[in-house]
Amino acid sequence: MLTIHDQIRELRAELASCALTRRERVQAQAELDRLVARQARMDRATDAVVFIGEAPPA
């Protein structure tokens, strides 16, 4: 199973170097945008947990 990071990397490579039809390119870009947004949400959630975990005791 590919990680989100792996999927993003593969889609970027595909968009950069493959001969895609207009429809395939639109679909690949939409999937890439969806995965990048998902990764950003996961990163923010992780940052929030780390930030809360590092907060000094009150």
Describe this structure in words.
- With 58 residues, the chain is an all-alpha fold.
- The protein has one domain.
- The chain has helices at 4-17, 22-54.
- The mean pLDDT is 89.
Secondary structure blueprint with pairings:
Layout: H1 4-17, H2 22-54
Total number of β-strand segments?
A: 0
Helix content: over 70%
Q: How much strand? A: under 5%
Coarse structural class: mainly alpha
C-alpha end-to-end distance: 42 Å
Helix and strand sequence: HH
Shape: elongated
**Main sheet characteristics:** none
Please, how many helices? 2
Cα radius of gyration in angstroms: 16 Å
Q: Could you tell me the mean pLDDT?
A: 89
- Unreliable segments (pLDDT under 50, ≥5 consecutive)? none
- How many domains, as an integer? 1
Question: What's the gist of this structure?
Answer:
By secondary structure, the protein is mainly alpha-helical.
Question: Which key terms come to mind for this protein?
Answer:
mainly alpha, single chain, 81% helix, elongated
